[in-house]
Design a protein that fits this description.
With 435 residues, the chain is of the alpha/beta class. It has two domains: 218 residues, Rossmann fold, CATH 3.40.50.11720; 189 residues, Glycogen Phosphorylase B (Rossmann fold, 3-Layer(aba) Sandwich). It is built from 19 helices and 14 strands. The strands form two sheets. Strands 3-2-1-4-5-6-7 form a seven-stranded parallel β-sheet, sandwiched between helices. β13, α15 and β14 form a beta-alpha-beta unit. α3 runs parallel beside α4 and α10 packs across α13.
Length: 435
C-alpha cells in the first residue's frame, strides 16, 4: 500500500502544481509564500537546536502554544519551527508566536518536496498535533531517525475503521512515532489495536490553552455599543448556520424585541455573502470588518468577520452557540472550551462527532446544553435570557469545567520530558534549577 501511495504521489507533480494554483486563485494560499508548500523555505534555519511542531489548523495551533512556551522557557537557546496548512492559522501564528518561534507552511506530501523540507530544516525533535498522517513525510522522518511524538492524538470512528482495513500500513506509519499521547482512553486503545507502541492517554491539550485574549479598548467600545440589550452569540459558523441564526433571531424578536445576535463566521472572508443572506430575511446587519464598525440600536445581527477577536466576543456575551453543529456539511463541531474559559453558557447541536468526547464530558458536567432542533434553540436561548439564575448556573459550570481541566499540560509535559532529555533538548540540571 505504501509503495502504491509513493508511486501515485511520484507521478502527481503536475496535479499538485495545478492544485496549488487553484488554491491560490481561490484565496486559500498566500502568493508570496506559495513556495513553502513545495518545501522551499522563506526563512534561514537557526544555528541552534530546532524543534519542529506541526499543527494542522487554528484549533491545534492555539492549543500547542502553551507547549511551545514551555519548551522555550527550559531551553534559552532553542528555536521552534511551527508548520500549519491554512492562511488563518498562519495569521494566528504571526500574532501569537513568542520570540525564537517562527512559522512556515507545511509542504504537500510529494517526496521531493518532503525531502527538501527535511534536508533544509534538519529538526532535532518533532511534535505532531492530533492525527495528520502523511505517509511520505513520516517515512522520510523515520529514515532520518528523528525523535517524533504524536500529541493530542485522536482517531474518529471513520478513521479507525479505514485504518483497520490497512492495518499493516498503519503499523508501519505509526512506528515512526517514539511516543503517542492521546486525547481519550478510547483513542489510546484504538492506536494500540492498529499496532502503535508506547501509547499513553493524557487528555486533550486544548483544555490547557490560555483563554483567548481581547483588547481592553475594543471590549469597552463593544459593551458601550451593546448597552443593556440581551445578546447571544453564534461562533465559528458554517454554511447553513447563518440562515438558522436569522430564523432564530426573527422568532426571538417577537418576545425580546431588542435582542442582538452576533455571528462569527469560521471563515471571515464569507462576511459579505453572509450579509447578503441576512438581507433576504429583512433584518438589519453590520459587518465589523477591519475598521471595527460597531452595532447600533437598530442592528439585528452583528457579523464579526475579523480574525483573532473571538475572545473579545466571548467576553461580551453570556451565551455562545458553537458552530458546525447544525451546518449543511454534516457538522462535526468546533472547540467549546474557549467559550467555557470565558464564562459563556454553551449551546450546541447534535452533530459534534469530531469532538464527541469533549462534548460528552462537558455535557455530563452540566456545563453545556445540547439542542436538537431549531425550536429547541429558540426556547433555550429565551429561557436563559429570561432566567438569570439558570443562565449564571450554566456559565459557572462551564467555567469550572475548563478550570478543572487546566492540568492536562502537566501530564503531557511529564510524558515528553524523558524523550526531550535524551535528545538534549532539555537539560535535567536546568529543569531542576527552574522548578
Amino acid at each position: 500500500m505504501l509503495k502504491l501511495y509513493k508511486f501515485l504521489t511520484d507521478i502527481s507533480h503536475p496535479a499538485l502544481i495545478s492544485l496549488l494554483n487553484r488554491r491560490q486563485n481561490n484565496g486559500k494560499e498566500l502568493p508570496e509564500r506559495i513556495e513553502e508548500r513545495k518545501g522551499i523555505p522563506s526563512k534561514k534555519r537557526p544555528e541552534t537546536s530546532l524543534v519542529w511542531v506541526h499543527a494542522a489548523s487554528v484549533g491545534e495551533a492555539q492549543a500547542v502554544l502553551v507547549l511551545i512556551n514551555l519548551l522555550l522557557r527550559y531551553n534559552e537557546k532553542l528555536h521552534i519551527l511551527v508548520t500549519t496548512g491554512t492562511i488563518t492559522s498562519a495569521e494566528l501564528m504571526k500574532e501569537k508566536l513568542p520570540d525564537r518561534a517562527f512559522h512556515q507552511f507545511y509542504p504537500l506530501d510529494y517526496m521531493n518536496w518532503v525531502e527538501r523540507f527535511l534536508e533544509y530544516w534538519q529538526p532535532d525533535f518533532i511534535l505532531w498535533m492530533e492525527s495528520e498522517i502523511w505517509p511520505n513525510m513520516l517515512q522520510t522522518i523515520n529514515s532520518h531517525n528523528i525523535p517524533t511524538v504524536l500529541i493530542n492524538a485522536k482517531l474518529s470512528n471513520s478513521s479507525f475503521r479505514n485504518w483497520k482495513f490497512i492495518k499493516n500500513t498503519a503499523r508501519t506509519l505509526l512506528s515512526s512515532f517514539s511516543l503517542i499521547l492521546t486525547q481519550t482512553q478510547k483513542d489510546a486503545e484504538r492506536f494500540k489495536i492498529l499496532g502503535a507502541k508506547n501509547v499513553r492517554y493524557t487528555d486533550n491539550l486544548k483544555y490547557s490553552a490560555k483563554a483567548l485574549p481581547a483588547c481592553d479598548t475594543d471590549f469597552k467600545a463593544l459593551l458601550g455599543s451593546i448597552g443593556n440589550r440581551p445578546i447571544w452569540l453564534y461562533a465559528s459558523t458554517h454554511n447553513g448556520e447563518e440562515a438558522l441564526a436569522c430564523r432564530v433571531h426573527q422568532t426571538l424578536k417577537n418576545s425580546i424585541p431588542d435582542i442582538l445576535t452576533i455571528i462569527i463566521p469560521r471563515h471571515p472572508e464569507r462576511g459579505k455573502s453572509i450579509q447578503s443572506e441576512i438581507n433576504t430575511y429583512k433584518l438589519s446587519s453590520i459587518l465589523r470588518n477591519e475598521t471595527k464598525q460597531l452595532p447600533d440600536y437598530e442592528t439585528d445581527i452583528y457579523i464579526a468577520n475579523t480574525l483573532g477577536e473571538l475572545g473579545l466576543f466571548y467576553r461580551a456575551t453570556p451565551i455562545a452557540c458553537i458552530g458546525r453543529s447544525f451546518s449543511n456539511d454534516g457538522g462535526g463541531g468546533h472547540n467549546p472550551i474557549e467559550a467555557a474559559q470565558l464564562n459563556c453558557a454553551i449551546l450546541h447541536g447534535k452533530h459534534v462527532q469530531n469532538l464527541q468526547e469533549i462534548y460528552d464530558e462537558i455535557g455530563n458536567a452540566n456545563a453545556s446544553i445540547q439542542v436538537n432542533t431549531e425550536q429547541e434553540l429558540v426556547n433555550t436561548i429565551s429561557d436563559l435570557l429570561n432566567d438569570k439564575n439558570k443562565l449564571q448556573k450554566y456559565q459557572a459550570n462551564a467555567l469550572k469545567f475548563s478550570q478543572d481541566k487546566e492540568a492536562v499540560i502537566e501530564k503531557v509535559w511529564s510524558s515528553l520530558l524523558p524523550l526531550l532529555e535524551n535528545s538534549g533538548i532539555i537539560e535535567p540540571h536546568k529543569l531542576a534549577n527552574m522548578k
